[in-house]
Structure formats: C-alpha cells, structure tokens
Amino acid sequence: MELLHFEKVKDGKYLKNYELTYLNKSGNEKKYEIVSRRDLKDADDLGGKPSGVSIVAICEDKMLLLHEFRMGINRTIYNLCAGMIESGETIEQCIKRELYEETGLKVKKIKKILPPSFAAVAISDTTTYIAFVEVEGNLEDHSSDNEQIDAAFYSREEVKYLIETEPFSSRAQMAAYFFAEYGL
Q1: Measuring CA to CA, how many Å separate 32 from each of 27, 37, 40, 119, 129?
Q2: Is 13 left (phi over 0), alpha (psi -120 to 50) or beta?
Q3: What is d(CA 133, CA 108) in angstroms, rounded to the nearest whole number?
Q4: How does residue 100 score in pLDDT terms, banded at 50, 70 and 90?
Q5: What are phi and psi of 142, to 5 degrees?
C-alpha cells in the first residue's frame, strides 16, 4: 500500500476530516476517509501526538466505571473515566483533572501509564494513553452540562455480571474483563 495523496476535506470544531488516496496492492487507487482531532500538516503527522487518556481506576479492590450517555451512539454505556489533554497540560495533570471533573475523586497513586495507542484505527489517527491509578475520595459530579455521567465502584463479581449484560466501550470492556478475572 502506498499513500499517494493526503487532503483535508472538512474542518469541524472538534474533528477534521481527511481523504487519503492509496495505491492498493492490485495497483488501483483507493480513497479512504479518516477523522482527526488535530490539524495534520501532512501524512507523516498521522497518529503523531496523543490527544487524551483513558483511566482504569481502582479503590479498595473495586473498579470505577462510568455509566454515561454518549451522543455519538445516542445511548448510555459503561465506560472508563477519560478525556482530552488540554494545551500545556502534562499527562499526569490531565489524569488528575479528568478524574476530578467526572467523578470528584483524587488520584492516590499513578501505578502505570502505558505508551499511546490508537483509539479507533479504522476511522481515526487518534492516539491516547491508558493510565492505571489508585483513587480516593467521595464520588461527586463536576462534569459539564453536556455530559451525563453516573460514576460508581464495582466489585469483581458485579463487573463480571455487567460485562455479560450491559453495553461497554471496547477499552472499558477489556479493562473490566481483566479486572473481573485477574484483579488489577
């Protein structure tokens, strides 16, 4: 596969649309559309800078899950606490801010921050970190009027049940499965 042409086709407030033209393995041109959260200078910039974080949070052997309404799918799902890195913010600052905004909780200890990974490779160049943290405090909603989030802690048994009966985001489902089966 060879990238022949790269062009921005729409500049939205939060997402930018790009059309990529490839020469496929049969020698034919293939048009492909993606979205990015960033303005991309050229094809070398694809997937270049992480834009956010997903947070796997544990408190006293229970996992934090958000039951939140997601506009893009018009439904409520189970998800991880997550958010976008603001300009000038470190990943550690982002983790603390997003956790507090969405849940009122504080970071007790950052156990591990994985290197950035691609969030939706079929449609976007977006890369995000995954952080594993121990948290403390009381659950409180500090989210914006544009977010509907119910945060709660779940035992391994409760998480096992939710995985089998409720809709999840893929990252939350994977983290929940490993928490339920092996602990974190």
Answers
A1: 15, 17, 16, 18, 26
A2: alpha
A3: 7
A4: very high
A5: -115, 20
What DSSP state is assigned to residue 180? H
What is the four-CA torsion angle of 173, 178, 183, 184, rounded to 10 degrees? -80
Task: Provide φ and ψ at 5, rounded to 5°.
Answer: -150, 145
Q: Among residues 120, 103, 118, which one has the least CA distance to residue 55? A: 103
Map residue 31 onto helix, strand or coil. Answer: strand
Name the nearest CA neighbour of 67 among 102, 101, 98: 102
Q: What is the Cα Rg of the chain in Å?
A: 18
pLDDT tier at 146, thresholds 50, 70, 90: confident
Query: Using CA atoms in the order 72, 73, 78, 82, what is the torsion angle rounded to 10 degrees?
Result: -10
Cα–Cα distance, 152 to 60 (Å, whole number): 13
Residue 55 and residue 112: Cα distance in Å, rounded?
A: 10
